[in-house]
């Protein structure tokens, strides 16, 4: 449906009664008086009077999505992870297990995305898809009951419920096969142990090196939960990942305590020597975790090839290097970059805005106080949107002027803010109409210049938004993460240097991009001084090798390549040549690390 200008649309009469407080909020355009200038808050205009390029978001026509067909989205939260078109800049590996030849060059032509890869998870029947095990003819009734209880997250004492027992007695003419929560607990523990053993065998057979991604969070019952995902690549170049631990983390979640827990997990699965890297967020306890774990592992292994030649040494070489093996979570870095940009733009927060609206309602006021009215365009737009969405009557009034409902942002997902901007900018005529007809919104009215400012802000942050969605939709490899870092770096350079479409960028937006660039550099610099794993992943990729490093780093690439040669020789030293007088010398089978 093509977007219609609300000015040309007749006002609709609500079919339901409106309470007295809402009558005070809404006024007829014909009976409304122009407010005095002292009642209006004049927001500051953007800092530049230079004419701006009209952002692309301001030119597009809104098309309301079709509501026909089966419902596929079961939660509004999924709206923030909408699918976007993948471009040729970021490579997504094809699922081609039959071929063992190198894939096409990432730098030439477009790549094909992997669609809906099911991440293996742990349940009572072993490693299956994230939707649980599919029923089979060999599944027993006991196993089906256990699977249902786990899949639907039922409490164990459900099998003690009298109605439950009565239901099974009617169905089978005998008691339920699992007749107590103690029996259920023992059966689940047994199946869990069986599943762990299956994972142990798979890791032992197909994983030469592994990496962990982990996180700790507090559950509603105020207990800490530690989850660990193991990642590796098989000899057939198949990416694999398993949830090998998810449970209650006892004690304070300091880096040293976490290191002890991770070491125990490594021992249980025989992965101490295979451990290559850890990926986590930027919390201060994660680097401490890496240093502590490295110290623990050094008691059983050596971390350098030179130490293998020490007389009397019986320890084997480990791959984990402490701080040098820590990979910063890309999604968390992108979030920090966005937050630093929004801070310069004085975007405020959802929590602050909600508190203002609740205080206004508690005081039974019809207008916002001057000290409650934000000055920035983003914060005022958020206040307008949340005020409209706080009442069903206001939503109905807004929908008289717009075909698409507004969406509010959440503080824990910055990309939700950009989606709010996207819908609000396209429905700005309806929002302006609401500001004219509703007393509380009159002081918040956005000028056309401010709408242009919001549109330009959206276009600048769109690249960051798209890359956040890419990371959320798929598990990006280290090499893909490096491409995302450099792609953002190039985008920020264009805005800061005012090149191309950004020749007339607003100075405040430029300042925000500079703040985001500073945060981004803080983490891209770590690839040069802390860990070279991202660079190593690029060089070892047969489609890329050294081309990408030389293209982006220029003359600095040669120093990085020298460090990579040293690194590869340490983790995979060349075999010592045999004495010439040895009969029938065995040829070396070691793979050359030269490039």
TrEMBL record:
Cellular component (GO) terms are: nucleus
Name the predominant localization.
Answer: nucleus
Q: What ranges does the record give for the region Disordered, renumbered to this chain?
A: 34-54, 573-595
Does the entry feature the keyword Manganese, yes or no?
no
A GO molecular function annotation here is: zinc ion binding
Keyword tags: Metal-binding, Nucleus, Zinc, Zinc-finger
Q: What is this protein called?
A: AC transposase
């Amino acid at each position: 449906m093509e977007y219609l200008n609300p000015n040309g649309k007749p006002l609709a009469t609500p079919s339901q009664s409106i309470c007295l407080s809402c009558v005070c909020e809404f006024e007829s355009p014909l009976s409304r008086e122009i407010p005095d200038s002292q009642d209006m808050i004049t927001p500051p205009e953007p800092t530049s009077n230079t004419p701006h390029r009209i952002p692309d978001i301001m030119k597009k026509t809104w098309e309301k999505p079709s509501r026909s067909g089966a419902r596929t989205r079961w939660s509004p939260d999924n709206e923030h992870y909408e699918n976007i078109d993948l471009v040729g800049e970021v490579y997504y590996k094809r699922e081609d297990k039959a071929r063992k030849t190198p894939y096409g060059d990432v730098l030439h032509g477009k790549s094909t995305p992997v669609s809906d890869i099911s991440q293996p998870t742990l349940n009572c029947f072993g490693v299956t898809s994230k939707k649980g095990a599919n029923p089979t003819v060999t599944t027993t009734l006991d196993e089906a009951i256990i699977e249902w209880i786990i899949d639907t997250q039922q409490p164990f004492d459900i099998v003690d419920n009298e109605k439950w027992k009565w239901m099974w007695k009617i169905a089978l003419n005998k008691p339920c096969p699992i007749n107590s929560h103690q029996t259920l607990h023992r059966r689940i523990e047994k199946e869990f142990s069986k599943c762990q053993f299956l994972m142990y065998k798979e890791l032992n057979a197909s994983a030469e090196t592994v990496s962990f991604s982990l996180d700790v969070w507090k559950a509603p019952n105020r207990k800490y939960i530690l989850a660990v995902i193991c990642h590796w690549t098989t000899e057939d170049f198949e990416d694999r990942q398993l949830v090998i631990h998810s449970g209650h983390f006892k004690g304070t979640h300091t880096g040293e305590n976490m290191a002890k827990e991770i070491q125990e997990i490594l021992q249980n699965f025989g992965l101490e020597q295979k451990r290559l890297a850890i990926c986590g967020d930027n919390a201060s306890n994660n680097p401490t975790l890496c240093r502590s774990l490295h110290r623990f592992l050094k008691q059983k292994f050596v971390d350098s090839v030179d130490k293998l030649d020490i007389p009397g040494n019986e320890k084997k070489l480990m791959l984990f290097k402490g701080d040098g093996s820590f990979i910063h979570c890309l999604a968390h870095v992108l979030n920090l970059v966005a937050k630093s940009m929004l801070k310069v733009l004085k975007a405020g927060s959802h929590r602050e805005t909600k508190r203002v609206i609740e205080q206004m309602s508690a005081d039974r006021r019809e207008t916002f106080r001057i000290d409650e009215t934000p000055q920035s365009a983003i914060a005022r737009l958020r206040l307008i949107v949340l005020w409209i969405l706080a009442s069903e009557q206001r939503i109905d009034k807004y929908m008289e002027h717009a075909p698409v409902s507004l969406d509010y942002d959440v503080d824990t997902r910055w990309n939700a803010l950009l989606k709010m901007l996207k819908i609000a900018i396209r429905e700005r005529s309806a929002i302006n109409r609401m500001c004219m007809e509703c007393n509380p919104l009159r002081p918040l009215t956005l000028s056309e210049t401010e709408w242009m400012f919001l549109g330009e802000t959206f276009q600048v942050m769109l690249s960051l938004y798209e890359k956040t969605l890419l990371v959320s939709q798929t598990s990006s490899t280290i090499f893909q993460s490096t491409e995302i870092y450099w792609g953002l770096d190039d985008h920020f350079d264009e805005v800061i240097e005012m090149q191309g479409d950004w020749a007339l960028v607003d100075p405040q937006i430029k300042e925000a991009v500079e703040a985001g660039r500073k945060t981004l550099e803080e983490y891209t610099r770590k690839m040069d001084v802390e860990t070279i794993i991202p660079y190593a992943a690029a060089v070892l990729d047969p489609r890329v090798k050294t081309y990408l490093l030389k293209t982006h780093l220029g003359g600095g690439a040669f120093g990085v390549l020298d460090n990579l040669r040293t690194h590869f020789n340490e983790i995979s030293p060349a075999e010592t040549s045999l004495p010439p007088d040895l009969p029938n010398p065995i040829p070396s089978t070691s793979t050359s690390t030269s490039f």
